[in-house]
User: Fold this.
Amino acid sequence: MKFGGSSVNDSACIAKVADIIKAAAADNDVVVVVSAMRGVTDLLIEAATQSESGNQNCIAAILQEVRQRHESAAKALIQSIDKRQTIFRKIHELIQEADSLSREILLQRKLTLRARDSISGLGERLSAPLVAAALEVRGLRSQAIDATELIVTDSCHGSAEPYMDLTRDRCEALLRPLLMQGIIPVVTGFIAATVDGVPTTLGRNSSDYSGTIMGAALNANEVSLWTDVDGILTSDPRLVPSASSILEMSYDEASDLADLGAKVLHPKTLHALMQSGIPLSIRNTFAADRPGTKITPGGSSDAAGVKAAAVICDSALITVRASSVLETPDTLRRTLATLAALPVQIRLAPQSSSSKDAVCVVVSSNHAESAFEALRREFAHDLEREKLKHITLNPSVAVIALVGRNLRNAGEIVERVTAALYRDTVKIFGIAHPSPGSNISLVVAQQDLKSALAAVHRELQLDEPVR
Ligand code: ADP
Ligand code: ASP
Ligand code: MG
Assistant:
């Protein structure tokens, strides 16, 4: 059972989490994985960044805030003076560790990826003992464990990958005996370590992945990820308030949705389960009676069609318009080659909805200027000689990805959605539908995103509950 940042945000949330675990532990062996309290990882990274810039005062204020949030949760959760003292000592030790890491960065005026991993992982190391303590208060036996002891990774700091065989051995050696004694391990999400014990992290938002890695390593019956919404919804509810829960999905559908921007699942979450076929459920900590979403290798057998609309924001659209359709293949080749030489990832290469001779690429906003300039250099000569009509940059677009299974009628879906958006005066800049049956992506202006999603929902009836 993995609990995300909003599920362990304060003492009231942690109390709910402990109740949910207690209920599950009545019938099952449970291993818990926890994130840092919401916002704490950001604060720790901010402390590291400020250290690099030499802002000592800022660091003290940040660490004080982190300390205070954990101490006040501990006060509210734990009545026993002794137990509270133990937790307070632990919080103190970890804040000291953050402080000395910050000082080292400050002295060197350099924030390495390795130091960033060490400091950013402290949030999980602070929250795990609080959850374990809350379980003990409820009469359960529990132990907080750093995943640095369990998950063995390569040394790719900031996005490390696990070595599953080594991880499995460690989990068997350390966790199985605890489970046999009826002790509930509360393991830190997000962090891991190399074979030599150097701390690593699996990437931002990756505690979901920690959860599935642990589940696979222990060959669990099920992995459940507990969050602040009723499972996977047809869209991000912050953008579409009427979005409805999806009861069942396949691994592929859920993986696509995660890859295409649905924050509710880290993109690597399903990687760890692919071989084992272990079911994954997404549940709401604040409405534990609701079913949430169940993700199985094959999903529900019935449902073909669009299940959900994921969104990638912070994107820019670059259009390189050739002088004729005949020039388009060469323009495309040169565009891709130019961008391949830069540290720029192409998010999508949609077909322009306005002209056949245009090559379109969507890149992340922070790479937009450099990509645009590189293309202007590459095509400078062609622009001068009017072999190319123009290169334009739209700095603020969003990609809406329609995710589902067997979209054999994709042509019809595109037509319906295009007409619905047109009725709502939302312009579609580009459409990508890489192969028959696959997902469909639409590029719209960022400012039109909400109305575009509302139109998609209405047209494809995604708001209807229970699918
Ligand atoms: P946690 O801290 O529990 O890991 P996250 O904030 O990482 O939670 O993910 C949950 C959030 O993901 C939700 O609050 C919601 O705003 C967002 N989200 C984006 N797309 C979806 C979607 N399709 N279904 C559900 N939630 C989504
Ligand atoms: N705490 C980590 C982060 O904020 C991991 C997670 O919450 O999943 O990125
Ligand atoms: Mg998350």
User: Anything to note?
Assistant: The first strand starts at residue 2 and ends at 3. The pocket of adenosine-5'-diphosphate (ligand 1) is lined by residues 4-7, 35, 205, 227-229, 232-233, 235-238, 262-264, 308 (CB under 6 Å).
